[in-house]
Amino acid sequence: MSIVIRISLLLTRLIFSNCAVSDSNLRVGESWSKRFCNWNKITLPEKTEVDFPNLIVGMATGSSYTFDKLVPFCKSARLAGFRGAIIIGITQLQGFHERKRKKVFDKFNITGVYLNGLKGDEWGQSTCRYHAYLKLILHFASESDSILVSDVRDVFFQAEPFLSVPFGAANFLNTSAQVLLFSEGLNDITIHKATLRNTRVNFRWILNIYGPKKSNLIASNTVLCSGTTIGSKSGMLYYTRAMLYEAYQCLRRNPKKVDGKRGHVCSGGADQGFHNYLFWNNMLNASVALCNAAGPVYTIGVFRGKPVRSLNFERNTDGEVISPSERGVQHPVPVIHQWDRHAELLEHVFQKFDLLSEGVSVRTLSSHLLDGSFSGKVRKKSRGL
User: Which keywords fit this entry according to its UniProt record (predicted)?
Assistant: First the structure.
């Protein structure tokens, strides 16, 4: 690695986290979540030999995840040059929709794992997905693999996420950085910052889960997005177990706490709260948070219908989303997250990945813009612990 690139990498790190949740607590979170998420009824397909390294794991459970919402993710990953295994958790669909999705998966060599019995009640699927991530990584990943766990509907790829230069994960992972977390906003190069406190949806989750005292201690920190995380196999096993333990602790503290229409405070987007709390309290061992668009991921989302005020992403002459000019030489960022919050990217995605040839119309694609987050509806019944 050149001296220039090495210095650049050092400047793009926010902070390291080096402390750990105990092994006994990690086991508690994993064992309890297995029961709570109904994992006993999930059957994993037989693992097949893969000639290429690394693993991408996503979740697309629920009847709304029809093939048209999956094509940009699946096709762009292969066009970007990723040749390893792609595993997506899915729900059984009916008739045409099931057949069409299978055709897409076969074409782009995607392994679908049926998670029909996965539930969660208070947690919801957005938290139980971490148990699914854990089990899928254990089953499919080799010891030397790096793993990306990712949202699906609002992600597309512009370059190989692990091996490309200069932003592939291999340029950042090492013995002291086993997990990569990715920030939102462009706080390192702008005056107006996107912090946990001033992005109200994030602060509301943390406040509901942890209360005002603990929330205020981390409120001025940069927002880290739980929708995409990359790490080594050992790093990601630790990360997913730590997230499950934090969710377990959430229900211990808040067995029946509900936040209006959001439902139970440990469900829905609560994983964003766990993700930030763990890192900013130095509880994610051997992890590092990278500045937005300074590594494998660029999160370009919106809050309350408006772009993050510190974020004005740039594009090159080919329409690709590129790193900010303030940081010097610009490059396409491998993983673009929350692209569907921006109508101006609709035509680019549609044309770039020739979605019409895959049976996706402009009308269908545009109807999905801003159509919600990962989480499905959560039942009102409350069990607590």
Answer: Signal
* Contact between 65 and 143 (Cβ < 8 Å): no
What separation in angstroms does the CA of 120 have from each of 47, 56, 253?
26, 23, 17
Alpha carbon separation from 176 to 13, 103, 340 (Å, rounded): 13, 41, 34
Instruction: State pLDDT tens for residues 84-142.
Output: 999 999 999 999 999 999 999 999 999 999 998 776 656 778 889 999 999 999 999 99
- Among 67, 77, 138, which Cα is nearest to 103's? 67
Going along the chain from its start, the domains and CATH numbers come out as 3-45+52-367 (3.90.550.10)
Pinpoint the alpha helices (H) of 12-49. 23-36
Which residues lie below 8 Å from residue 19, measured CB to CB, with a gap of 6+?
282, 283, 285
Statement: residue 13 has pLDDT above 70? no
Q: Is 262 exposed, middle or buried (0-12, 13-18, 19+ CB in 10 A)?
A: middle
At residue 357 the predicted structure's pLDDT band, cuts being 50, 70 and 90, is: very high
Q: Identify residue 315 by its one-letter amino acid code.
A: R
End-to-end CA distance of the chain: 50
145, two tokens: 């693999």
Chain CA centroid to CA 373, Å: 11
What pTM value is reported for the model?
A: 0.91
pLDDT tens-place string over residues 183-225: 999 999 988 788 999 888 899 999 999 999 999 999 999 999 9
Give the DSSP per-residue string, 185-249.
Answer: S-TTT-SS--BTTTSHHHHHHHHHHHHHHHHHHHTTSBPEEEEEEEEEHHHHHHHHHHHHHHHHH
Selection from 231, 236, 230, 227 nearest residue 337 by Cα: 227
d(CA 132, CA 128): 7
Pairwise pLDDT comparison (308 vs 141), residue with the higher score = 141
Residues 216, 236: Cα–Cα separation, whole Å: 28
